[in-house]
Design brief:
345 residues; Rossmann fold; globular
Length: 345
């Protein structure tokens, strides 16, 4: 067998997307996604009943219509921008690196991405989950799948992982770069930082001290050992960093969570509840930034750009602006390249 070469394999990970906006493909995607015990953290028999008797009979049709409203000629926005990022990062890294994009759910799969990298017999592999804030349901699940796939392989080179990067200047500079044009051109009167929601229990489960997370209103105001893996604390860290980078007045900003699912307690405040409160305060032209997403997707383009905007209009607001995600913007490409080179060195 030939010896490993000196190239480095790079695996960029994101959550996933259906293969098409058809009801069939959306149902298949939702089945894979919501069958993950790290996503719906209830006993397997209850999860099976919830998925097969409550979610899958009804949700695929609604979700398919939502996907159809944002589908691009190139396909899913998440996949399209992921491919663009992978391509540009590969160009910047140059010879000696091979970059693959993989999705935790759907295609291209983590298994296919790792197979492609291992075929080249790299000297090492760097795994970058594209989730700025750590959560078991996203980063944890993706890395668990990487581990599962590699356990069945032989001659696996050293694998290193780039962890969460909630307030990394490379992320914040890139997010600020795409947000500034809207802030300067539209002059919004409020900035909303909207993060993907998460069940409260999943936050409490990562409380290393057991008596910190969600116990006090200020538990996420500063980083500490107890909240080092806390998704909510990471969201607040990202917000603080972006407020500073963009030179915003903190009193003119709000942190909210979106995409709530089910009846169990999720992180508050919920975007759909906060919008009426802002309208009642006389806010007319807010802009929404979505810092838990590095690529535009259903949760940004449809949930914010269509549904939240419709809700805002019905509340009497003048306009609701949506800042794009960093996608494959040059500043973000440079940031990813820097993260990879830093880890390799």
């Amino acid at each position: 067998m030939s010896k490993p070469n000196q190239s480095v394999g790079v695996l960029l990970l994101n959550l996933g997307t259906p293969d098409s906006p058809s009801v069939r493909d959306v149902r298949r995607y939702l089945r894979q996604f919501l069958s993950d015990p790290l996503v719906i953290t209830i006993p397997q028999p209850l999860r099976w009943l919830l998925l097969n008797l409550v979610i899958l009979p009804f949700r695929p049709k609604t979700s398919a219509a939502a996907y159809q409203s944002i589908w691009m000629p190139e396909g899913s926005p998440l996949l399209h921008y992921g491919r663009e990022l992978s391509k540009e990062v590969s160009k910047k890294l140059g010879d000696g690196f091979h970059v693959e994009l993989a999705m935790r759910y759907g295609s291209p799969s983590i298994e296919s991405g790792l197979h492609s990298l291992l075929e080249r017999q790299p000297s090492s592999i760097v795994v970058l989950p594209l989730f700025p804030q750590y959560a078991t349901a996203s980063t944890g699940s993706a890395l668990a799948e990487v581990k599962r796939v590699l356990q069945g392989k032989q001659n696996v080179p050293p694998v290193t992982t780039i962890g969460a990067f909630p307030d990394d200047p490379r992320l914040c500079d890139a997010m600020a770069e795409v947000a500034r044009p809207i802030l300067e051109d539209e002059k919004p009167d409020h900035v909303i930082f909207s993060y993907h929601g998460l069940p409260e229990q999943q936050v409490r489960d990562l409380d290393t001290g057991g008596q910190h997370c969600l116990e006090k209103s200020d538990c996420c105001d500063a980083a500490c050992p107890e909240n080092r893996n806390c998704y909510r604390a990471h969201c607040f860290a990202t917000t603080r960093a972006l407020i500073e980078t963009l030179g915003l007045a903190a009193e003119n900003t709000s942190v909210v969570f979106q995409s709530r699912l089910g009846r169990t307690p999720w992180l508050d405040p919920d975007l759909v509840v906060v919008l009426p409160e802002l309208a009642a305060r006389g806010i007319k032209r807010p802009v929404v930034l979505c810092p838990s997403f590095v690529a535009d997707c259903l949760e940004t383009v449809e949930e914010i750009g269509i549904r939240a905007r419709t809700q805002w209009k019905e509340l009497g607001g003048e306009a609701l602006y949506l800042a794009p995600c960093v996608n494959a913007e040059p500043t973000w490409v440079d940031g990813v390249v820097s993260m990879v080179r830093e880890r390799v060195s």
